[in-house]
Structure to design on (101 residues):
């Protein structure tokens, strides 16, 4: 598939259902699934968050968003693994010595 066409399709898919900050569970699932398909090691949700620095997160909106994501096909085990936080980080191992950032 043409890279530009694939990117346009991804953008359109993501913009069909906008999500507020800290409620992007569908987006996190979309991204994590694609990164894993590329063979990357992916961490999600709370594994990437410093809770003491989280600002503006509404637990009620988060709970509602998790229910909505489940209704839209995001697997329950994925949602549980986020521990109520969004975001995905992929690690790309180049095989070279030293720590990556």
């Amino acid at each position: 598939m043409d890279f530009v066409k694939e990117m346009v399709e991804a953008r359109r898919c993501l913009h069909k259902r906008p999500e507020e900050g800290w409620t992007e569970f569908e987006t996190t699932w979309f991204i994590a699934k694609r990164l894993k398909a590329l063979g990357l090691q992916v961490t999600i949700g709370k594994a990437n968050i410093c809770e003491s620095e989280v600002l503006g997160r509404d637990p009620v909106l988060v709970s509602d968003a998790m229910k909505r994501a489940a209704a839209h096909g995001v697997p329950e085990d994925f949602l549980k693994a986020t521990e109520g936080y969004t975001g995905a980080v992929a690690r790309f191992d180049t095989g070279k010595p030293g720590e990556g950032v």
Observations:
- Helices lie at 3-15, 25-37, 59-71, 76-82.
- The CA atoms of residues 23 and 62 lie 5 Å apart.
- Strands lie at 41-44, 88-91.
- The chain has a mean pLDDT of 94.
